[in-house]
Amino acid sequence: MAASLKNYEKKYKALEDVVRQLNDDDLTISEILTQYKKGLTLVKECADMLNSVETEIQQIIEEVRISE
User: Could you give the count of Cα atoms lying within 13 Å of 60 in the half-sphere of its Cβ?
Assistant: First the structure.
C-alpha cells in the first residue's frame, strides 16, 4: 500500500505540473495538446488508483461486518 501511495502522489504531482504548464501563456497549440493528453491520462490513472483503494476499503468493511 505504501508503494501505491507514493505512486499516486507522484502521479498527482505530475498532474499539478501539467496544470501549471497549461496555465503558461508561452505554449504552442501543439504543446497545449500534448500536455492536455498527458493530463487526461494522469487524471484517469489517479482515478483508477482511488477506485481500487475504495473497492479494497469496501471489501474490508464487508469482512468486518460478516465477522461481527
Answer: 6
DSSP class of 28: -
Contact 38, 20 (CB under 8 A): no
- Alpha carbon of 18 to those of 22, 27, 50: distances in Å? 6, 12, 20
Average pLDDT of the chain is: 92
Polymer length of the chain:
68
The per-residue pLDDT for 2 is 58
Amino acid in position 61: I
The reported pLDDT for the residue numbered 3 is 64
pTM (2 d.p.)? 0.81
Classify residue 28 as left (phi > 0), alpha (psi -120 to 50) or beta: beta
